[in-house]
Amino acid sequence: MYVKECPECNRRSYSANKKSWICPYCGENLDDVEAIRAKN
Ligand SMILES: [Zn+2]
Questions:
Q1: What pLDDT was estimated at residue 19?
Q2: 40 C-alpha to center of ligand 1: Å?
Q3: Cα–Cα distance between 35 and 18 in angstroms, integer?
Q4: What is the pLDDT of residue 18?
Q5: CA of 29 relative to ligand 1 center, distance in Å
Q6: H/E/C letters for each residue in the chain?
Q7: Please, what's the b/e burial string for 9-31 (b: 16 or more CB within 10 A of its CB; e: otherwise)?
Q8: CA 6 to ligand 1 centroid distance, Å
């Protein structure tokens, strides 16, 4: 899992891959945001 922090709403979203990442909260395109590998 990867985590990205949205620069628009500052909320974190999770995804299994890094392709076509859109913020689920505000709809911002997060493709240019660095993905962080999440540890469970
Ligand atoms: Zn957002």
A1: 85
A2: 22
A3: 7
A4: 84
A5: 8
A6: CEEEECCCCCCEEEECCCCCCECCCCCCECCCCCCEECCC
A7: eeeebebeeeeebebeeeebebe
A8: 5
Going by pLDDT thresholds of 50, 70 and 90, the confidence category of residue 40 is low
State pTM to two decimals: 0.83
Ion ligand 1: residues, Cβ under 5 Å: 6, 8-9, 23, 25-26, 28
pLDDT by residue (tens digit) across 2-19? 999 999 999 999 999 888
Residue 9 Cα to ligand 1 midpoint, Å, equals 4
